[in-house]
Amino acid sequence: MKKLLTQTMLLIVALAITGSTFAQEPTTATRQRRISTDAAQSAGQDQKTATDPATTDLAGDKSKDKSKTPDMFTADAATNRTDQASDEAAIVQNYNNFFTTYQLGPEDVISVTVFGQDRYSRGGIKIPPSGRISLALIPDGIFVSGKTVDQVAELIKKRYDEYIIDPQVSVSLDQAGSYRYSVIGDVTQPGIRLMTRRLSVSEAIAEAGGILQTGDKKKVFVLRKQKGGNLTPIPVNLAAIYKGQAPDSIYLLPGDQVVVPGNKWKAFDKIATVLPILSFARIFTGGF
User: Fold this and answer.
1) What distance in Å separates the CA atoms of residue 13 and residue 15, rounded to the nearest whole number?
2) What's this model's pTM, rounded to 2 decimal places?
3) Partners of 112 in the β-ladder
4) What domain count does the chain have?
């Protein structure tokens, strides 16, 4: 009986040891799944390692393009802004110079503004031929012909200083009507015109419609009156100006006359006009 019990206990211990051993050792399927999982993970890491250089290169190329392109565009934009600013400055300077030195005369329209004193301000004043304008509290008026707007403002300020404490006066030119120039000779529309802005010789001829085929672009000249009353010719080679070989730097003054003489084609045109008249006259003189 004791022998049977002893064998039974040994059998139970052996079964327990065998079960624990099988529980600790993985099966073949489990080992295969682990191997496949590890292989997949290693393959994924290899793919990332293989693709990372290409991605880095692309990113580097993009960064290079981005680093280059803005600089190029910024330089071009800065150049364009500089050119545009210089052109605008030249235009503004021309207009400012014209209106700053503009001497008032008949047919000009001005406005007088007294800051904080509307009753003394007046707009749309057309300068009469006498050159004298009337204002409130100034019965005899103020002579403005031949003066600039700044000079007129200073005169008005002195007169109003008797009635207003520290008057602030400004005078503006609303419409220029006294400055005139003329273009004569072989142009499309010769005549006298108002000078409402600063004009060069080429601009004045352009406003006259341009030079005719019979006009000589190389021998254009400007007649300018001097203090003594004499007219002095100023030669202008428009042919060279149009070709970019000479600057368009001669600007007109009030009273200037731009003259465009004729060329050789005008002489031929005169001959062609006279020939039919001579032929008709020979009929009565017995020439035929």
Assistant:
1) 5
2) 0.54
3) 122, 171
4) 2
